[in-house]
């Protein structure tokens, strides 16, 4: 009997040393992660579109506390049309979260007591089960907390992943989290948050009154609305984003879907830089960039001449008939060297 | 003489109170749900169509007034005394105090009691010599055809309710529709506890790491799904999956069931 015990202890020790061996060889590739010592803690500044939290100036990793509430509420989807949105933080898209590569994110998701349904969150920036969804399924009135290390820099979509997932997303449950690279991002003059989503209602586009979600249309991928920032004319006219000529503007672009891929385009400006799919790869001089459902893109452009820039999904029926339009109002002096309208002689 | 009168009066009043209490108990009408087959929202090895024997079910959800009687009779279930393992800090939080729903809450005496845990609900049912209905029983009962409302499809009706945020004041029981079994408000008033609410776990991500969850998540394309468009069933499934036995939630109540001997 004793012998068996000793034998098994030996076997365990051998096994442990083997495992340790595996570990030490494996850690070399992830040693950069271990180096990031977490210093201090701070609460994340969260913003509603089209606003973006300020760039991160920290040169070290920290513990970032994120508190996000799930709110189910009736809001306007068009001037005389209402819709019951399910939101992260009370608006669509959800709050913009900004952290730094190496940060330890301490995330609390609270489902407000007035909610009808349970919700959770899957952040595409998370390396772990369900992107956090498994750890955060919360019934109304409950909250859930988990921590993750922001290992990969980039712009990531987050969304609700409670079944039926498509329906939760179709009701507006998505947003963006930016994980800034350690070296920071290049300095620009203005940053904005623009997120596309498709919506399916019983009534037609802009039919008045409170409109319900239409699951048949969602299954057929036939939306009544394709919107930037959750509402027809959310950022047009008086609510247009504001910038000046000569400024470098960065757009954090996301697409919540649930179904459509965006052909993201700004009429009258070339993207000087595109962080393809929100990652490290930079493409230059791009006219239209693809933003897949559940994906993102970062675009930068130097504004050359004054006027109204129209942001569209270049699958243009979505813009002209389903609401996919946002605007940047560019003020400043004319720049005839770049653009000059020639008066025809009569 | 005075004393005698007082005692007499007291006896009469307490007798009346008891009679009232009994009246409440006797009042809860139960109806019979005929035997039938419960078809789960989707089928897996662990979740197959089930034969459900005929059973009795409360015709409507248990109300605040009824639950107050239970709390009076069972001090361990008073708000200030309840064990946190059996009911979280939201237990009966909408009441004025341990033994009073409160005058400002007069309009919810006959609304379904909410903010009650599974343990509390089960204890109430046991006190009435009843039990909570199983998921299979509840779903079978819930599928009963509405009698007194116009509707295009039950799923649409249910989804209409799911999509509305909670009303500021919960309406009384028996204010929605009555179904073929004589049951009131199976959909449209509150969510209801079931005996085995967590027997099918989707406690996690509903896209699932277990085989069952994976199948549920792939519902849209899975041949195993009974009805690909049963989004209402899907939502109840995910709601139940988010619960723990001690949770007390503002839109979650219950009704009791009983075997037919």
From TrEMBL, chain A:
Residues 1-22 form the signal peptide. Its EC number is 1.7.2.1. CDD domains: CuRO_1_CuNIR, CuRO_2_CuNIR. InterPro entries: Cu-oxidase-like_N (IPR011707), Cu-oxidase_fam (IPR045087), Cupredoxin (IPR008972), NO2-reductase_Cu (IPR001287). It catalyses: nitric oxide + Fe(III)-[cytochrome c] + H2O = Fe(II)-[cytochrome c] + nitrite + 2 H(+). Keywords: Copper, Metal-binding, Oxidoreductase, Repeat, Signal. Belongs to the multicopper oxidase family. PANTHER family: FI03373P-RELATED, MULTI-COPPER OXIDASE. This is Copper-containing nitrite reductase. It comes from Flavihumibacter solisilvae.
UniProtKB/TrEMBL annotation, chain B:
Residues 51-258 form the Sulfatase-modifying factor enzyme-like domain. Residues 1-19 form the signal peptide. Keywords: Signal. InterPro entries: CTDL_fold, Sulfatase_Mod_Factor_Kinase, SUMF_dom, SUMF_sf. GO terms for molecular function: formylglycine-generating oxidase activity. Pfam families: FGE-sulfatase. The keyword Lyase does not apply. This is Sulfatase-modifying factor enzyme-like domain-containing protein.
